[in-house]
Write a structure and sequence with these properties.
The chain has 161 residues and is an alpha+beta fold. It has 4 helices and 5 strands; from the N terminus they run αβββαββαα. Strands 3-2-1-4-5 form a 5-stranded antiparallel beta sheet. The radius of gyration is 23 Å and the shape is elongated.
C-alpha cells in the first residue's frame, strides 16, 4: 500500500467520524428539544431564583448560573441551566446577585426542570447546536463521497427566463 492510499484511507476515516459526530449532535439536540417542548406543554410553572455561583480569581468576569426553586409541595430543588449567559442577558436578567425566573418542572420528577425565558429564547441555543451538527454532518458526508460535490446553479437561471 503506497502513501496515497494510506492518506486516502485516513481521510475517509476522519470524514466518516465527522459525519457520525454531526449526526449524533443533531439527534441529541432533537431529543433535548423534544424534552424542552414537553416541559413547556406539560410542566408545572413556578418561580425560581437565578444565582451566579461562579468562583473566579483575579480580574476575570465569569458566570455560572444556578436556579433554585420550590415545588408546589414545598420541596426545594436546584439545577444548572444549560443556557448560555448571552441568552440570559438578551432576556434582560442581571447576572449580579439574583433575579426571579420562570421555571417549568415535571410534577412527578422535579429534578427535570428548565428555565422558561421571554420569547422562548432558550431555544436559540438548541437551534445553534442543530445547525452546527448539520454542517459537521454535511462536511463529513461530502468527504465520504467518491464523486465530487457540485452545485449547478445554471439551471436556476434558465428557469427564470
Amino acid at each position: 500500500m503506497d502513501n496515497a492510499q494510506r492518506e486516502e484511507k485516513k481521510l475517509s476515516m476522519w470524514t466518516r467520524l465527522a459525519f457520525l459526530v454531526g449526526v449524533l449532535i443533531v439527534l441529541s439536540t432533537c431529543v433535548i428539544t423534544m424534552g424542552a417542548i414537553y416541559l413547556d406543554i406539560e410542566g408545572i410553572q413556578t418561580t425560581g431564583r437565578l444565582l451566579n455561583v461562579a468562583d473566579c480569581s483575579g480580574n476575570r468576569n465569569c458566570w455560572t448560573g444556578k436556579v433554585e426553586f420550590k415545588t408546589n409541595d414545598g420541596e426545594e430543588f436546584s439545577f444548572y441551566p444549560q443556557t448560555n449567559r448571552f441568552i440570559f442577558d438578551l432576556d434582560g436578567y442581571m447576572t449580579e446577585g439574583y433575579r426571579e425566573v420562570d421555571v417549568r418542572y415535571l410534577e412527578s420528577f422535579p429534578d427535570i426542570a428548565k428555565v422558561s425565558l421571554v420569547y422562548k429564547l432558550e431555544y436559540l441555543n438548541k437551534v445553534t447546536w442543530s445547525v452546527l451538527g448539520s454542517l459537521i454532518a454535511l462536511f463529513g458526508w461530502i468527504g465520504t463521497r467518491n464523486k465530487p460535490f457540485v452545485l449547478d446553479l445554471s439551471k436556476l437561471r434558465k428557469g427564470n427566463k
